[in-house]
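Quick one:
INPUT:
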């Protein structure tokens, strides 16, 4: 539904003594002197202001069930072109301005600035100055998204400065303003007097449950497995940007075929609006080289340039040096002739000659600069783990292009905070791409955020994000740093390959390896009609082929499908059929690269004890966490400074990330001393002696709890005086051995000393919730129910073991002491009978199962750290493997076991019953 409406703003008059005033978008002028003289005295005694009508032109239409409005004439009237685009409650203003005068340059100085100010969502910035600072990454990326499709449509030789500024005026959080800003920029250029080959249309396509969605909302994008941004003219493709979850080439082609006609719907409203409100295009002076100059330079340089390009032994820099020498030879010839006009245009002219030679050889002979076939990939070299001190690293080379990627794992609190108007508030996976000057043998200065570096890094980040485990399975914050060591084309795709290997080297369980390759295009165009007569598709293009060709089509994905795409072109569009045809050679090249990557590393590495990072998540009460944080977080910062670990606190959970196992143990030790954890019989605790009595010493441990270290537990040898062995303030590692009749927790020092254990006849029955946690990093899945087939095939426990992830739950203990007579009476009332070995037999039930009870069980399931046992009566128990313990159990084996404790969920923990 298309409609064009010209709206005249209502006029309001009021008295004003000759002043020009503006109010509520209505412009008013005082009456002229002649008008005042013609009015009667009663009227001009109190002059009535004259009026000027402010006209605005509006165009309304619908795309994908969304109402879209173009409006011009109300805002930014002094700009060369300005328009406000509205979709529901989100509005974007785009303006265009051009430089005055003729500047001496040989390129188009086009600048595109996109800005999201916080007022658009009713928020004051949180910065110290309470105002927006330097452009954020998202703003740079949106600026590139606008720049890429509009730049090819400026006429060749237009070197006047052009600036586009797009600002979000209001945002409802439902629509992403980036697509709106690109379409608004197209309208602004159409309304301006700047020569431009538009209009263009840009559309976003999503897919949920196999159904494509046009202009999806942010909520729909969160559920979508495809985020396709497509820009085009009426019949040609200009730009493609894709983030996907392994979408097949066939499905992607279907999405592109749908996107083109939907994007074309933006064009007709722009043409109508420009016809009513646009300016006449200005006659700009175009800097075009003369045919005479081109012919002269071609005669001098064509033969030596062709000799360089036909010799495949030249490397990148050797070829460049040879071409520079040819340019200098031509310059000397022109200087001798005194041809100043040709000297001014010499660099551009020589580049045109080079371009013609390379393109002609590719079209006519199918020969590339380095002698490869059109579909041939350059030689590959892969190396993972080349920097063993880091969490993960890899080196990837394709031809002369080389990229080093490193992986750093951090705590959840290390996630990047985002201040964008739409999208998530944090980002836990970051890929930072760096292109230092030495990688192309140049001298340069490192500055702030670079648009190209941000764009390339984001493309590789999108490609790898699709294969990462979900956040609830992998709680690390992950940073990949990509350093380009040498560049000769497709460094962003080399970053994808190196990043995938580095993640596996870091132990991150990726679903699949991801590889990327860049596909190029060379066309033979009829200069009179602009129709493509012939073309060639090039696989894995060089930097020179990118510069002299027509297309840079970067495609990344797994064996199963595509995860990211970025298409940039130089001519004013290429047919969609050629774009779709390029998907097949990219897929074949991707498989070749994946084969080499998998030969180097095809599975996540097992983390070693020395350098691998460790992460553990513990459950505590909020009161306990407040004690750990301390006033203004001082206590937590002190622990981080002393141990080097990173601590993150959420509601009811504590996450500790350490660079190795030793740092984690130190952090856990300090946390346990402040907060404490569930006491276990047999657990080792660090405590401080607080007082000494004749019969023993009292020790503070486990977050302020008191324990009794009896004199008999000080040493394997007899001790006459307690003070001979321990002193007040001394730190000890003690073992919990139970609880005495007065309620004191019993600790033992001699049990930790390196001497063979002696038998004991003291039997203490303990009823309560004890967790058999031998190390803070152990984790057990629930054994209260029968596992599903999915759990059998893909154990979450083993996955956590490989990445150092652990989760524990601690609570206050509940301990009850009974006498031997009370225990016997309890057993009789429960219907238990002693067997010949002194144990007890069925009927077995949850109430009758006590610590010390022996039973015959069957192995129900074998897990990574122990066994799930069937005790009969519907009761499941668990048995933990000892260090270097027996692991050759078979499901169905009968075992004689004894209940040694219970977990916090009342799951019995069993040990092997001793034979008589």
């Amino acid at each position: 539904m298309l409609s064009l409406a010209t709206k005249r703003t209502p006029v309001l008059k009021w008295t004003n003594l000759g002043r020009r005033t503006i109010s509520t978008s209505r412009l008013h002028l005082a009456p002229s002197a002649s008008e005042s003289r013609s009015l009667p005295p009663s009227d001009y005694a109190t002059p009535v202001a004259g009026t000027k009508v402010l006209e605005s032109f509006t165009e309304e239409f619908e795309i994908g069930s969304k109402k879209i409005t173009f409006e011009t004439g109300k805002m930014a009237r002094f700009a060369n072109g300005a328009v406000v685009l509205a979709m529901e409650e989100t509005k974007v203003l785009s303006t265009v301005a051009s430089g005055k005068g003729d500047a001496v340059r040989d390129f188009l100085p086009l600048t595109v600035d996109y800005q999201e100010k916080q007022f658009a969502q009713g928020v004051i910035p949180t910065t110290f100055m309470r105002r927006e600072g330097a452009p954020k990454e998202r703003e740079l990326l949106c600026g590139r998204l606008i720049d890429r499709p509009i730049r090819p449509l400026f006429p060749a030789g237009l070197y006047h400065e052009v600036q586009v500024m797009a600002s979000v005026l209001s945002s409802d959080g439902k629509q992403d303003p980036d697509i709106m800003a690109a379409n608004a920029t197209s309208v602004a250029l159409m309304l301006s007097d700047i020569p431009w080959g538009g209009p263009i249309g840009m559309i976003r396509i999503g897919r949920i449950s196999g159904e494509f969605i046009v202009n999806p909302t942010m909520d729909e994008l969160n559920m979508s497995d495809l985020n396709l941004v497509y820009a085009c003219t009426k019949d040609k493709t200009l730009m493609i940007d894709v983030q996907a979850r392994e979408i097949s080439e066939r499905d992607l082609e279907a999405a592109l075929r749908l996107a083109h006609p939907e994007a074309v719907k933006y064009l007709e409203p722009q043409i109508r609006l420009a016809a009513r409100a646009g300016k006449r295009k200005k006659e700009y002076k175009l800097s075009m080289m003369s045919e005479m100059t081109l012919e002269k330079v071609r005669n001098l340089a064509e033969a030596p340039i062709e000799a360089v390009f036909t010799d495949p032994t030249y490397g990148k820099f050797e070829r460049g040096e040879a071409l520079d020498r040819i340019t200098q030879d031509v310059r000397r010839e022109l200087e001798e002739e005194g041809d100043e006009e040709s000297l001014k245009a010499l660099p551009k002219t020589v580049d045109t000659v080079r371009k013609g030679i390379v393109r002609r050889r590719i079209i006519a002979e199918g020969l590339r600069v380095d002698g490869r076939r059109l579909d041939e990939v350059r030689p590959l070299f892969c190396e993972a783990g080349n920097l063993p001190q880091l969490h993960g690293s890899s080196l990837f080379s394709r031809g002369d292009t080389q990229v080093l990627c490193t992986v750093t794992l951090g705590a959840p609190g290390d996630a990047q905070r985002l201040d964008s108007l739409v999208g998530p508030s944090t980002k836990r996976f970051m890929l930072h791409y760096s292109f230092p000057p030495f990688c192309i043998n140049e001298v340069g200065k490192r500055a702030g955020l670079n648009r190209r570096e941000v764009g390339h890094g984001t493309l590789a980040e999108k490609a790898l994000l699709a294969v990462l485990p979900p956040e609830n399975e992998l709680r690390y914050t992950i940073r990949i740093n990509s350093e380009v060591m040498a560049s000769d084309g497709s460094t962003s795709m080399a970053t994808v390959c190196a990043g995938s290997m580095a993640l596996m080297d870091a132990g991150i369980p990726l679903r699949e390896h991801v590889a990327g390759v860049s596909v190029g295009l060379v066309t033979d165009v009829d200069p009179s009609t602009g129709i493509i007569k012939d073309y060639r598709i090039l696989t894995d293009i060089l930097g020179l082929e990118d510069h002299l060709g027509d297309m840079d089509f970067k495609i990344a994905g797994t064996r199963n499908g595509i995860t990211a795409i970025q298409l940039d072109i130089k001519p004013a569009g290429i047919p969609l059929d050629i774009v779709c045809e390029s998907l097949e050679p990219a897929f074949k090249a991707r498989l070749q690269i994946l084969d080499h990557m998998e030969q180097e590393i095809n599975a996540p590495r097992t983390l070693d004890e020395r350098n691998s990072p460790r992460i553990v998540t513990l459950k505590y009460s909020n009161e306990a966490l407040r004690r750990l944080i301390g006033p203004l977080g001082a206590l937590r910062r002190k622990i981080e400074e002393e141990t080097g670990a990173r601590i993150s606190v959420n509601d009811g959970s504590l996450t500790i990330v350490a660079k190795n196992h030793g740092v984690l143990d130190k952090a856990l030790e300090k946390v346990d001393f402040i907060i404490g954890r569930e006491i276990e019989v047999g657990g080792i605790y660090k405590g401080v002696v607080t007082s000494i009595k004749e019969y023993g010493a009292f020790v503070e441990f486990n977050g302020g709890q008191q324990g009794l270290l009896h004199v008999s537990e000080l040493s394997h040898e007899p001790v006459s005086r307690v003070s001979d062995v321990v002193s007040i303030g001394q730190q000890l590692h003690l073992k919990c051995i139970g609880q005495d009749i007065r309620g004191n927790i019993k600790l033992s020092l001699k049990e930790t000393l390196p001497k063979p254990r002696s038998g004991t006849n003291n039997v203490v029955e303990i009823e309560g919730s004890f967790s058999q946690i031998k190390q803070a990093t152990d984790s057990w899945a629930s054994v209260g129910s029968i596992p599903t087939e999915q759990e059998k095939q893909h154990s979450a426990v083993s996955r956590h073991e490989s990445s150092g992830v652990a989760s524990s739950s601690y609570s206050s203990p509940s301990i009850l002491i009974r006498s031997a007579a009370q225990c016997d009476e309890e057993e009789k009332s429960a219907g238990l009978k002693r067997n010949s070995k002194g144990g007890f037999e069925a009927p077995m039930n949850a109430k009758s199962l006590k610590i010390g009870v022996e039973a015959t069980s069957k192995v129900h399931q074998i897990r990574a750290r122990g066994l799930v046992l069937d005790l009969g009566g519907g009761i499941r128990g668990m048995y933990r493997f000892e260090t270097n313990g027996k692991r050759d159990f078979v499901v169905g084996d009968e075992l004689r076991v004894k209940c040694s404790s219970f977990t916090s969920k009342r799951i019995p923990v069993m040990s092997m019953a001793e034979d008589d």
